[in-house]
Amino acid sequence: MSQQQPTPADTAGGVRHDFLHDFLLDPARHSPGAPAVIESPQAGHTAVTTYAELTALVGEYAAGLHALGIEPGARVILEADTTAPAIAMLLACSRAGLTFVPVSPETPYRRLESIAETVRPALHLQELTGQRTDVRPPVGTARFGPDGLTVDRAPVRRPPRRGTPCVTDPAYIIFTSGTTGRPKGVVMSHRAVVAFYRGMLAHRIAGPEDRIASTSPLQFDFSLLNIGLALGSGASVVPVPPPLVRWPRHLLRVLRETGATQVNGVPSIWRQVLRHEPRRLAALDRLRGVLFCGEEFPLPELRRLQELLPAARIVNCYGATESMACSFEDVPSPLPESIERLSIGTAHPGAEMLLVDGTGAVIDAPGVVGEIHLRSPALFSGYWDDREATRATLVPDPLCPQSGQYVLRTGDLALRGPDGEFYFAGRIDSQVQINGNRVELAEVERRLTEHPGATAATAIPLPLPGGGQRLAAFVVPAAGGDLGDAGALREFCAQTLPPYMVPQEIRLLDRLPTTANGKVDRAALAAGAEPAA
Length: 533
Ligand SMILES: Nc1ncnc2c1ncn2[C@@H]1O[C@H](COS(=O)(=O)NC(=O)C[C@H](N)c2cccc(Br)c2)[C@@H](O)[C@H]1O
Fold this sequence. Notes:
With 533 residues, this protein is α/β, with parallel strands linked by helices. The protein is built from 16 helices and 28 strands. Strands 16, 17, 18, 19, 21, 22 and 23 form a seven-stranded antiparallel sheet that branches.
């Protein structure tokens, strides 16, 4: 049994911190003058916030929040991109015992209203430059900036009914994009987040010299991973504003001017860079690490990234918001020619993945596909106000249901390799029935991206008029690649796939639509597809 290695965060000052704000701002871990956040919103302009400045801002915001008389345990909507003040504000909420709910400034008003109706926040917070108006009373409204907190509409004051902060208290609530039905609020406690950070930091992915670019919106817990990885390692966060992530030249400029040494993001952030600015990417000689999560990285694109950044360590981070993440696995460099699937490794120290078959039995043998169930101290507390969904996801430990211990039912399929490492094998709901046959969509996508002229592909089931489903695929041609027409691509698939797995229709797209969190937006593809002929 591998003992959990103490992480820098725990051993530096010899004190264990179990609340988010203490853990990330432990002064014993980083020198006050070291850069905590490095921003470069415009060309030629770089702003550094040191750990001492960040800590002072947290103190100022926490005092401002305390003065508002909001009871501990109340929710606060934190509408912001990942900026130094926003990082300070989330840490101040943590210190004030308030649960923050991060949402992006790009969040549509109706979705913000729906989240507010669900969590009934005491306060809505946005940056000084925030554009949000008409937040409905009685929710208080305030703005925060480098000089502190300014209140527009005071929140309702309530006497505190909790006197003692507990590590099981909710630190934040993340609303998932909710692939099915209404968005679910994933409630994460201080204990879960800090347990995850400890497990992640044990991998020593970053050190104090690192500058870690964060390219996800604050509402996506990937940004919270990046903040924890940077501050937990005594390194710097380099937030890249979402509008700049989408333009290769802007993204690369920020990386260059901030001296970023690592870039964390979903696979889709690289597509346009690889296509339009390969040489500028290769010129970033300080870049020595890439970490991706959220979905599979198309192997041809991953190979291309490795060619352009031969010295970079590329880490495949697998996990779900309900446990922040689960595993960190180095991508082999270079990728073997024959590889079919990337390993997602094994769970971070202190956690463990189990595979369970359709009958609920735990699978030990290698090579057998089962559903990943995660044993971990970093599991979410539950979905906000949704016991039924919680019960379906936090299930009794299949190894000992009587114990009262719960594990996370991930909805992901995987199989074990010969050395106990896991290989992601798609989501259970990406197993679809076509003409009565089970099809793993990822397998169709993999075949399509094996075509030298294709750089990315998504396969989705579409309804047939008479019932049942047909298979449709959307393919992004490689720059300068020769893709031929849809017929040639179908023929290419037919060479290795059974007939029912060959997409009945294939559409070529310049780019795949993505969700707010940067993942391929399958619902948008399905909605945009013509009805069946
Ligand atoms: N590396 C992979 N290969 C393949 N499939 C992946 C990977 N990482 C996810 N997924 C899929 O995404 C699902 C989950 O989606 S999610 O809840 O929106 N969360 C996410 O995507 C992001 C997730 N919270 C996460 C991951 C890493 C760090 C942090 Br911090 C957060 C998983 O259940 C998987 O199906």
